[in-house]
Design goal:
The chain contains 18 helices and 13 strands. The protein is of the alpha/beta class.
Length: about 400
């Protein structure tokens, strides 16, 4: 492996979503703590940039879902894509690390692999759930898959893909105090939650397109629930990459009390009794915190039509359900994500202790399916082995 003259390890990283940028950030922190000199560039977050990452595009600007949404942002995505190719030609990185974000990353992988660069993929797209034919692309253009779930290993090995199970990095974010009743009570007191109140957490998503499709419906659901459930406190959990003041501005015309919270996602979820959560990695955060939830997702109708027409839809779309291969937390997709359908389910979770406890027990099983802690260190070691 050729190393640059200044003995720094050059790596192109694409972490274009809130969750993947956190995992990439943890890698940069690990290398910094170990005194490893790294020249890292690509797509990431401002927190990554603060660690010396050279950012050609920010996750919050590029994390869009759906054909219509992608077309709206096409010019920006196109510019970032070709700026990365140009920088790769200039720098000649020792390794390319792609995280999730398949439509962009697959195209980038094809271009970079043809340049002779080793391409690793960390956080596999859910091709085991839908569009499995993409595995042939991976076999051709990806040198190694670093996967989060044990069952992904069997899937990729079946097709002859070089794969290694590293565990899920979210396990490293779990801290004992997050489950400590005294710690939780102190946090709740800071946000004015009284002892007799139950907390409904709203998690509309970390992408602007998700806020557009989910925020208003989540607020309608919360408003209806406050009328039906006594002593219900509504907290809007703001993703770290979002501007909380902009979000306050979008909610200013609603006439029921909403508590805005923006801090570590696990600390926010710890305060909730029940969560209304947009589908994505956030459902795994909620599940690992053993909080019952309703999972919702809405997109542009045209995007949904094309998806249903072209692709075979999976049985479930919520990660906690996909991983366990059963309906643990109820899902509400597109037209079903309405107050009429979601409110009765959430009300039952908030008022029926037996149903609540049953979902808690099923969510506890999640940890056993995600391997052990230390995913970041494992990925770091695998990457640095390319340096030898």
């Amino acid at each position: 492996m050729k190393i640059s003259k200044d003995d720094s390890f050059k790596i192109l990283i694409v972490a274009a979503e809130a969750s993947s940028s956190l995992y990439a950030q943890r890698l940069l922190e690990d290398w910094k703590a170990k005194g490893i000199k790294v020249d890292a560039f690509g797509i990431g977050s401002k927190k990554m940039e603060a660690l010396g990452f050279r950012c050609f595009g920010y996750a919050e600007d590029l994390a869009v879902v759906g054909l219509v949404e992608v077309l709206k942002h096409f010019r920006k995505i196109y510019q970032v894509f070709y700026s990365l190719l140009k920088e790769a030609d200039r720098v000649s990185p020792d390794l390319v690390l792609l995280l999730d974000y398949p439509d962009f990353n697959f195209r980038l992988a094809k271009k970079l692999k043809k340049k002779g660069l080793p391409v690793y993929y960390y956080i596999s797209p859910q091709i085991w759930a839908w569009r499995q034919n993409r595995v042939y692309f991976i076999k051709k253009y990806i040198d190694k898959m670093l996967v989060l779930f044990p069952f992904e290993v069997d899937f990729y090995k079946k097709f002859g893909v070089d794969v290694e199970f590293v565990g899920h990095p979210l396990l490293d974010e779990l801290r004992p105090e997050l489950f400590d009743s005294q710690f939780i009570s102190q946090m709740k007191e800071k946000f004015g939650v009284t002892k007799n109140q139950k907390v409904l957490g709203l998690m509309p998503g970390s992408r602007q397109s998700e806020l557009t499709h989910h925020l208003e419906d989540q607020l309608k659901i919360a408003e209806s629930l406050q009328k039906e459930v006594k002593d219900l406190k509504v907290m809007l959990f703001v993703a770290p990459n979002l501007n909380i003041e902009n979000l306050r501005g979008r909610v200013k015309n609603w006439n029921f009390p909403i508590q805005f919270v923006q801090r570590d996602p696990f600390e926010m979820v710890a305060m909730a009794d029940v969560v209304l959560c947009a589908s994505g990695t956030a459902t795994l955060t909620v599940g690992l915190m053993e909080k019952p939830m309703a999972i919702m997702y809405k997109m542009q109708p045209s995007t949904v039509f094309l998806a249903r027409f072209i692709m075979k839809m999976p049985n479930y779309f919520g990660l906690v359900n996909l991983i366990q291969n059963k309906l643990v937390s109820k899902e509400f997709f597109q037209e079903d994500a309405s107050p009429e359908k979601v409110v009765p389910y959430l009300k039952e979770l908030l008022t029926n202790s037996e149903i609540y406890s049953k979902q808690v027990q099923e969510l506890r099983h999640l940890k056993t399916l995600l391997g052990s802690r230390g995913a970041t260190q494992k990925v770091s070691q695998i990457i640095m082995e390319k340096r030898r």
